[in-house]
Design brief:
This protein has 308 residues and is mainly α.
Length: 308
């Protein structure tokens, strides 16, 4: 069935179908429905005949006038042979679910079309604010700005409230896989509220981790040499002991203290460091003891310094 806005209404636990929807799906004329409306009205007590929603008398074709349109109660559509009108609409719950799903898809498609057109027409004016980025990043950042601008314009034009519009916009963002915008509607709403408060879009939409100095490479050959010297000692200190000792000395000397991960990447996880303690950790002559060396001796050397 092809649905349009207003085809189905649910009022007081009664499902109502608009007249045009009934005519199109049951292949009956409006003149016939006018006739059955008159018959149903005669079954209603005179004191109730002038109500917009007529009471249920149990007769077929109960109808109501809602929003200046004629609607028919689904449960009162007759199901007699040879036509079996009621069976053509199927289960009541399924009819309402299909109607709501159809409207949701129509609204989503319409919103997606409007958003795509708006972004295409307006994103270029934001490109100049991202001159330090490459071309691909500039376009993606500018389109992200246009999406937030579209959301504000769409809410103002339609006088919307609540979170529904943010959920629908985020759904389009996720389907189109747009960058530099959150898929979660709450996160997106936070950015929109910043925009509504007067903050410039170029200050809201930025490259991730821009200005973050945590990824700068910390390079100190003296600390590397100190850690390596402790590792090469015969005491076979643990990695954690060496790290704590070097960090304590850095704090005493007022030097920058490297992180635990820095020692792993720079010293302890390198093959040229691991071989220093392989024999102590795994035992002389074992397979594990030679994992980080360039050769495995099959027999003991006959003379000192020999390498087979």
């Amino acid at each position: 069935m092809n649905f349009q806005q207003g085809d189905i209404l649910v009022k007081s636990n009664t499902i109502w179908c608009i007249e045009k929807f009934v005519c199109d799906n049951l292949n009956i004329s409006i003149d016939y429905l006018r006739k059955v409306r008159t018959k149903y009205k005669q079954s209603v007590t005179p004191c109730h005949r002038y109500h917009n929603i007529l009471p249920d008398t149990g007769k077929s074709w109960r109808w109501a006038k809602i929003n200046n349109n004629i609607y028919y109660a689904l449960s009162n559509i007759p199901n007699r042979k040879p036509t079996y009108y009621r069976e053509q609409f199927g289960d009541a719950d399924s009819l309402v679910e299909n109607y709501e799903l159809c409207l949701k898809n129509q609204a989503s498609n319409l919103l997606e079309a409007e958003l795509s057109y708006f972004v295409k027409e307006n994103y270029k004016k934001w490109i100049g604010y991202y001159s330090e980025c490459n071309d691909l990043q500039q376009n993606a950042l500018a389109k992200a700005c246009a999406v937030i601008e579209f959301t504000g314009d769409y809410i103002a034009r339609n006088e919307l409230r609540g979170n529904k519009i943010f959920k629908e916009v985020c759904q389009v963002i996720e389907e189109k896989d747009m960058r530099y915008l959150p898929f979660n509607y709450r996160r997106f709403k936070e950015k929109f509220e910043d925009y509504s408060s007067g903050i410039s879009l170029e200050d809201i939409i930025k490259l991730p981790r821009s200005g973050n100095s945590h990824a700068l490479i910390f390079d100190d050959p003296e600390l590397e040499a100190a850690a390596l010297k402790l590792r090469a000692r015969g005491e076979n200190y643990t990695n954690e002991y060496i790290i704590r000792k070097v960090q304590e000395l850095c704090e005493i000397k007022g030097r920058r203290v490297p992180s635990r991960r820095w020692f792993g990447q720079k010293v302890f996880e390198l093959n040229e460091t691991k071989f220093l303690t392989d024999h102590l950790r795994h035992g002389f002559g074992s397979r594990k003891a030679f994992e980080n060396t360039g050769y495995i001796p099959l027999e003991r050397a006959l003379y000192a310094g020999d390498c087979w």
